[in-house]
Specification:
It contains ten helices and five strands, in the order ααααααααβαββαββ. It is α+β, with helices and mostly antiparallel strands. Helix 5 runs antiparallel to helix 6 and helix 9 packs antiparallel against helix 10.
Length: 378
């Protein structure tokens, strides 16, 4: 949240407290029995509302005690409940339903117990009870609405991210398809042209004939076309990660994520497919941690030839292990629905004959554990 938004919210809270205090003191001013103590109780109860965002329960407690004291001392009208009503609403809005109901009950009990037992007081008490019920209900409704908005925004962001990933994947598949088509058709045809031109030039020179300039031009042009086509195919087939897992960790730290990187075993060059898969796994795991784990700590462990599962170390010289754990808000009782990122991660690992486990941890947070065989380097 930006500083400007914080300042605006703080200003709005102060204005709310000032308006409630002005209404309360304005109504009390028309009562001849109002004393300086009563005005002080109204002002303090109203001023507490300025802090309802940071300490809703404390604000409710202060407003309830001071509001009840004012009701007991001055026997005011229903509008004296405004500070308590505001505190009840804000407490219910952040989920403290029981506390909000208790504050309402305390104020109503004090209001009824100190008033004369007349029909007028009963009617006022019933009116106040309805107001307090509305304050609790509207607070809960506002809480549910805010949760719905946050969930909708999160779904929109996730849908946008998955659409981008799907588009990138389709683009990569299309590039590979075009590369295959070019290789199977143009490369073969141009190779035949170059071969035939070369044979014709060789035979002409062997017989002592003058080589036609057009034939030399065809030989040179076909060779140049082959070189350019190979360069184009390399570009189309390029799918190399732009960096290393260590660079991903540095980028995540720069973005504000607390990440620790540990590398065990003898670090060595990896097969291209394994190197690319390892990069994408770490990238996706850090992206998910940044998006879903909240202010969590993330630990990335990469093992060359050792499978460190956290319980025992398994010696396996033909295996690359990748563990990414966070202590975020993931709950084992509510496992996430695999999205495009986790599905793509699993497909990469499976294609290499490895294993992947991506799920919430029993102690809280989320864990990604990948095991990639390194048989090609043995």
């Amino acid at each position: 949240m930006s500083g400007r938004q914080v300042d605006r919210r703080r200003l709005a809270d102060v204005v709310l407290a000032a308006v409630v205090g002005a209404l309360g003191t304005g109504v009390a001013a028309f009562d001849d029995g109002t004393t300086a103590l009563d005005h002080a109780l109204i002002a303090l109860a109203s001023a507490a509302l300025a802090f309802h965002r940071t300490a809703p329960r404390a604000v409710l407690a202060v407003a309830t005690v001071l509001g009840t004291a004012y009701a007991v001392h001055a026997h005011p009208g229903p509008l004296s409940a405004l500070p308590v009503l505001g505190a009840v609403h804000t407490a219910a809005r952040v989920g403290h339903r029981g506390v909000a109901a208790a504050g309402s009950a305390v104020f109503l009990a004090g209001y009824v117990a100190t008033g004369p037992g007349t029909q007028n007081v009963a009617e006022r008490a019933g009116l106040l009870a309805g107001w307090f019920l509305c304050a609790v209900v509207t607070g809960l409704a506002d809480r549910n609405w805010q949760a719905y908005l946050r969930q909708t925004e999160q779904r929109a962001l996730e849908a946008e991210r998955t659409r981008e990933e799907a588009a990138l994947r389709r683009a990569g598949e299309e590039r590979l398809r075009i590369a295959r088509e070019l290789h199977d058709s143009l490369t073969h045809s141009i190779s035949i042209v170059k071969l035939q031109a070369g044979v014709a030039v060789h035979l002409a020179r062997k017989r002592g004939d003058e080589v036609p300039p057009a034939l030399l031009a065809i030989q040179e042009a076909s060779g140049e076309a082959m070189r350019e086509l190979r360069s184009a195919l390399q570009v189309l087939r390029a799918d190399e990660p732009a960096g290393t897992p260590a660079l991903l960790v540095e980028r995540a730290r720069a973005a504000g994520l607390a990440v620790d990187l540990t590398v065990t075993g003898d670090e060595r060059p990896l097969p291209r497919a394994v190197d690319r898969a390892a990069y994408r796994i770490v990238q996706e795991a850090l992206t998910n941690a940044a998006r879903h784990a909240g202010p969590a700590k993330v630990r990335v462990r990469i093992g060359y030839g050792t499978g460190d599962t956290g319980e025992a170390t398994v010696q396996s010289m033909g295996e690359l292990t990748i563990d990414v754990d966070d202590d975020g808000a993931a709950d084992p009782a509510r496992p996430p629905v695999p999205g495009t990122g986790l599905t793509g991660m699993r497909e990469r690992v499976t294609a290499l004959g490895g294993t992947l486990c991506a799920a919430p941890r029993a102690e809280g947070g989320f864990s990604v554990r990948a095991r990639l065989p390194l048989a090609e380097t043995a």
